[in-house]
Specification:
About 70% of the residues lie in helices and about 10% in strands. The protein has about 500 residues and is α+β, with helices and mostly antiparallel strands. Helix 11 (about 205-250) runs antiparallel to helix 12 (about 255-325) and helix 12 (about 255-325) packs across helix 13. It is globular. The model is unreliable at about 1-25 (pLDDT under 50).
Length: about 500
């Protein structure tokens, strides 16, 4: 009953805290979050800016910066980088204009604004600008005297090195931060930092960083558990020592001495039990961690071997299939399937290799890729190309393959009298997009997450093998980009090929 009461009390306190935090948000803040949850980003962005200005006027700077970050992120989602930077500059000026803030408080707030700029440059893949802002963040954190900001700056510095391929420096910075927190016995914070790094590695599909992070985490976890057990033993030893001292001081009282001796035996028994339980838990964790590490390694090796095996089988089947009448739909479908399998397997095996780029004239390039589908267009279908006279660094073969496949699909699914678009948009210094849209029947929302996954369904090969879009996705990722469906386009379907130079 006591445990149930304590549990209920904890739940009540959690609900009360959450309710109190929600109540602390201003009305404008709540309106902005409501607009965002109801998919009205423009209204949400405007209201977040108003909420930020209201908070700053009332001296609630932390809440104001939270709204600034939300508004800036909404600008970034629309590729409005200048507007996002202008908003952050306005926040810095507003902080400097508050005489009630001390210099250290201003530095703490400037740190958060500089961190938002750093995140934008990280998205733009501009390492020099990212490093400049990390250095600025370290200066703000040092002047603020805030240890949490200092640790956060170290963490972001480690992420910077990992993101841009300097794993040695990343390991050094990350180790410095972990050692610093471990020395102050903040084991839970170190554990959270490692979990965050592992989650970032998993989300970015960086297998090497994931394996390295997991290896470092296991090593630290083993040593941390040993330190925790040592701390508990030292604490119990101190308790025993204190008990012995108390016994000596009260030597005149036989009853008190007997009570303390009994207590000493209880402490010793608790110590023995704690050591046994700690050893069992530690041993079990070590065994499970090593098992999980081995499973990850086996999974990676099996995937590589599977891709190579499928590619070899496909290559061996192709000569035999060519001897059969290739005019038959079934034979042609098998030959195409064999080629698609080999292409997909080669992409998976060579994903870490750097693709070669060349200077491409965008307008001429777009006209070339659209010329192949004119014969496939249905009656009165309009093909529009919106591409400027400029050049960009691209991998011509991969980009052309993706765009031709998307345009071919658009020609198939666009009905008579419809429209197909191929647009080019420059989104940043080293970021550009190709958009292929059509007024066809569209793709149901519940199927959008699956169309880029190979081998998900059994297909009639004469009607397609389902490997076209997965192959295009792999090519986009290999070019340091991505291929997605625009969720806001409702007139049909629009694919977005985003590439980073």
């Amino acid at each position: 009953m006591k445990k149930i009461f304590v549990l209920c009390l904890n739940l009540f306190l959690l609900v009360a805290v959450a309710t109190a935090q929600e109540a602390q948000k201003s009305e404008l803040h709540q309106q902005a979050e409501s607009a965002l949850s109801n998919s009205h980003p423009i209204t949400a962005r405007y209201t977040f800016v108003r909420a930020y200005e209201d908070y700053f006027n009332k001296g609630k700077f932390q809440q104001g910066l939270e709204c600034v970050a939300k508004a800036a992120s909404l600008h970034i989602s629309e590729n409005e980088y200048k507007e996002a930077f202008d908003l952050l500059t306005n926040a810095d000026q507003a902080i400097n204009g508050k005489p009630q803030l001390s210099d250290s408080q201003k530095d703490g707030l400037h740190y958060q604004v500089s961190k938002e700029r750093m995140n934008i440059y990280m998205r733009l893949r501009r390492p020099q600008s990212v490093l400049e802002h990390i250095n600025q963040m370290e200066r703000y954190a040092e002047r603020s005297g805030n240890e949490e900001l200092k640790n956060d700056a170290l963490y972001n510095k480690a992420i910077y090195y990992y993101t841009f391929g300097d794993n040695a420096k990343g390991n050094a910075v990350f180790k410095e931060m972990a050692n610093k927190l471990t020395a102050s016995k903040e084991y839970d914070k170190v554990d959270k930092v490692y979990q965050t790094l592992i989650d970032n590695s998993r989300r970015s599909n960086n297998a090497s960083l994931l394996a390295q992070s997991y290896k470092s985490y296991i090593a630290w976890k083993d040593s941390a558990n040993a330190l925790k057990v040592a701390d508990e033993i030292n604490a119990l030893k101190k308790q025993i020592s204190d008990s012995e001292a108390a016994i000596e001081e009260k030597d005149s009282s036989l009853t008190a001495r007997q009570v303390l001796i009994v207590g000493l035996f209880v402490v010793l028994a608790a110590l023995a039990a704690a050591l046994i339980i700690g050893a069992v838990v530690l041993l079990r964790f070590v065994v499970l961690s090593r098992k999980q590490k081995k499973m990850i390694q086996m999974a990676n090796e099996n995937n590589a071997l599977k891709a190579k095996f499928i590619s070899n089988i496909s290559a061996q089947l192709e000569p035999t299939l060519k001897k059969i009448d290739s005019t038959k739909p079934e034979v042609k479908a098998l030959l195409d399937f064999s080629k698609h399998i080999q292409t997909l397997s080669e992409l998976e095996n060579n994903m870490d290799e750097v693709v070669e780029l060349e200077e491409v004239q965008i307008q001429q390039f777009c006209e070339e890729v659209t010329s192949d589908i004119n014969s496939l267009l249905k009656k009165d279908v309009t093909l529009k190309v919106n591409a400027p006279k400029m050049s960009a660094q691209l991998n011509r073969d991969y980009t052309a393959h993706i765009l031709k496949h998307l345009l071919h699909n658009a020609a198939i699914y666009t009905p008579e009298g419809g429209t197909i678009w191929l647009d080019y948009k420059k989104r940043g210094a080293h970021t550009h997009q190709f958009l292929v849209g059509d007024t066809g029947c569209g793709i149901p929302e519940e199927k959008r997450d699956d169309i880029f996954k190979p081998f998900l369904e059994i297909h009639d090969l004469t009607k397609g093998d389902g490997l076209g879009l997965p192959t295009c996705k792999q090519m986009a990722v290999k070019m340091n980009g991505d291929l997605t469906i625009d969720p806001e386009f409702t007139k049909g379907t629009r694919f977005v090929l985003e590439l980073h130079g």
